[in-house]
């Protein structure tokens, strides 16, 4: 497809929010030897996308301008690089792109073979794209630091999921139930029935005084908190933790890192664990199978066409999505 142009959205500098995204025509990228070229069917947005644009993660993830953002895509393989062994043209796949290169807000993108997996026909492109960053983060938080066994054979533990109505939270509730946990969840009043429908055993409205204490209505102490909301300190959870309970913070800021260090040095039994998801193809395949088998569902907040992707971007910045925000060609 060398020389062909495609529609994409890109930004040229830090800041600017949705208005900073420009519609452009740029060349369709060519796959390197270990890459596949995808015609995008769906792209899922994450808060990381606009946080990178804002420069919030600049020391760790500096932008290379111009930047076509977004990392979670589903698409059809159009071409494969000379070294690609596991994919061929015409296959439907889902891929996780690097935050350093992005590329998801476009008609075509190249993806590393290593982070591309086949999409079964039972799982739609939007449902599959949504799984990547959010599903992987929920899975890694629950299996590694929280120690849940996803086949449900582990002992029952008590889990609190904050921001359970969001992209990560809605997967965390469902996966925690598969892992044999008792789940307490927090969300806004309008989402209480929704979060219960995902399997949460008890739900707290985060805007009420009871919700702000994180106290389990049935008096449970949490073995792990999958903390997906922003700006809540460890001390707010501490009284509700079991003796060796952990807060797994997926939105760690400088204060989190400081508390983490203090808890380590003082050998505290109650721990704070900052979590940075590392994408793994086998984890994505595992999640895709759970969706295929109907054990986990992707809930879609809204779908937006690529020509109006700035609306999707603004919605993500707004921070009130229920489930995932999707952009389609
Ligand atoms: N460390 C990692 O590797 C990693 C990976 C993925 C995501 N993250 C981070 O994790 C955070 C969550 O991501 P996400 O994709 O789930 O976000 P999201 O989908 O944008 O979350 C939006 C949802 O959170 C709810 N919410 C906001 N504040 C809340 C609070 N204090 N208590 C309860 N619910 C609250 C909102 O409910 P209302 O509308 O009712 O307010 C909304 O439904 C983001 O900061 C993201 O950057 C980190």
Automatic annotation (TrEMBL):
It comes from the Eukaryota. It holds the Pfam family ADH_zinc_N_2. This is Enoyl reductase (ER) domain-containing protein. The lineage of its organism: Eukaryota, Viridiplantae, Streptophyta, Embryophyta, Tracheophyta. Coiled coil: none annotated. InterPro entries: ADH-like_N, Chloroplast_QOR, ER, GroES-like_sf, NAD(P)-bd_dom_sf. Residues 16-327 form the Enoyl reductase (ER) domain. It comes from Arabis alpina (Alpine rock-cress). One of its GO terms (molecular function) is oxidoreductase activity.
